[in-house]
Structures are given as C-alpha cells and as structure tokens.
Amino acid sequence: xxxxxxNMSDAQKSPCSNGGDCSxxxxxxxxxxxxEMSSSDKAFFDKHADDCVHCLxxxxxxxxxxxxxxxxxxRRCCPESLLDSIxxxxxxxx
Amino acid sequence: xEDDIKRxxxxxxxxxEFDAEFLPHADALYNFAFRLTHNADDANDLVQEAFMxxxxxxxxxxxxxxxxxxxxxxxxxxxxxxxxxxSKQPSxxxxxxxxxxxxxxxxESVQSTSDxxxxxxxxxMGDEVAIALSSLEIxxxxxxxxxxxxxxxxxxxxxxxxxxxxxxxSRLHRARWLIKxxxxxxxxxxxxxx
Lengths: 94, 194
Fold this sequence. Notes:
The complex is a heterodimer of chains A (about 90) and B (about 190).
Chain A: H1 2-13, H2 19-33, H3 39-51, H4 53-72, H5 80-93
Helix pairs in contact in A: 1-4, 2-3, 2-4
Chain B: H1 2-22, H2 26-37, H3 40-56, H4 67-84, H5 95-101, H6 108-112, H7 119-123, H8 126-135, H9 138-149, H10 154-161, H11 165-189
C-alpha cells in the first residue's frame, strides 16, 4: 500500500505522454469510481489504463481517497423523540 | 356506511404502507437535514415537514419507486424554501462564482493535488472528514452526502437536486477535490505531511 502511494507521487510529477487521452481518462475517473460509465467510455478507460501506468496509478489513488471518505462519513441518527412525534402527527392527519 | 368502512380501510392501508416505505429512511433524512443546517432544531423541523408533505402528497408518489430519493427531494426543496429564500441562513458566497472558479474540466487541478499517501494521515482523518465536509459550500456538501454517504446514483441525484446529470458529475468531482484540499491543509497544519 505504501509503495503504491510512493509511486503515485512520482506519477503525478511526471507528465503523461498521451496528453489528450490522459486528460480524457482523468475526466472519467470519478464516473468509473461511481460505476457510472457508459460502455464506450469504459472500453476507452480500460484500454488507456493498460497503456499508461501513470493514469492507472492516479486512478488507484483517487479511488482509495473516495473509499476513505465513504468509510469515514457517518450518519447522525434521527432522535427517537422526533420519530415518535412524526408518527403521532401522521396519525392525526388520518 | 359501507363507503365509510371502505374509506377507513383505505386510510389504514395507506398509513401502514407509509410507515413501512418511508419511515425507515428517517435516519438518512435526519442526517441530511442536520448536515444542511448544522442545527438540531432546524433539522427536526425540516424532517418533520418533509414527512408531513410526503404523507399529504402520497398520491403523487408511485408505489415501489424510490421512496428515499423522493423524501430527499422534498426535504431539499423545503430547505431551500424555508431557509435560503427567507435568508435565515444567507449564502455568504455566490455559488455560481465558486462553481465557475473551480470549473476546471481538464482535471489539471485534480492532478496537481497530491494524494493522501500515508496510512498515518488516513488514520488521523476520521473526524477531520466530518469537519472538512461541514466547511464546504452547501452545494458541494450536499452532493458528497448524497453520493458518498447515501449512495445515490447520478440520475437520482439529478432528480433530487433538479440539475442535469453532467452538472452532478462535475459538481461531485469538484466537491471531492475541495474536501481533499481541506484534508491536506489539515494534514500539513498538524505536521502529518510536508
């Protein structure tokens, strides 16, 4: 894990060779993370990930960051008193 | 007489269905309201109002569709009407200005931001994620909650927020970039990274 993070640092300092494709790949990263990719974009994404190690590593780091955010966000639960009050008000509306 | 009994039965059925289909989303809805308002009383009012509206307009809800998204949309609209239009919580920053400022679709801004590289930083970012989230402008905060906490799809978020899917996509991307910036500022301040 630490190695991939270290590699990421170098990857981000190095300009990618396939300018246009790398830029397009970068725009698609979050759609990929969210599972919201069209099949044609997915085909492009997978191919470019095979061709460009820098972009692949960048994707890995972005995905890891989003996973962390998702894991760390927690809900505040609805107070029981509020839920009871809602149930009572709905009964009154009957 | 028979009509009265039938009406009463329908009402009971509607009531039971409402409880079963809508009330399980109370925690998610309350959390959303609290993160929008940062105030427990205001969150209570918003949630109560959203459930009352949902009950009153239950006929416009198509059974079996996305009850959670419908409730979130009602609550979001209630928040906008009650809080922003009445200027109870005036927005300090023009959202469009913020959005255009960060509107760097080429993604360079994202790549220029270094990633969270070490486990030590990640371990220390528990509460900081919540703090960073609350410091975001409301539109960015909202989209992170809907996507990364509640797991709504882009299409659902577009309906909840009344914005095109393309805007959902770009706003979410920018929101994540902003929260990363906030966390990195924190990490630098605390000496976790250089």
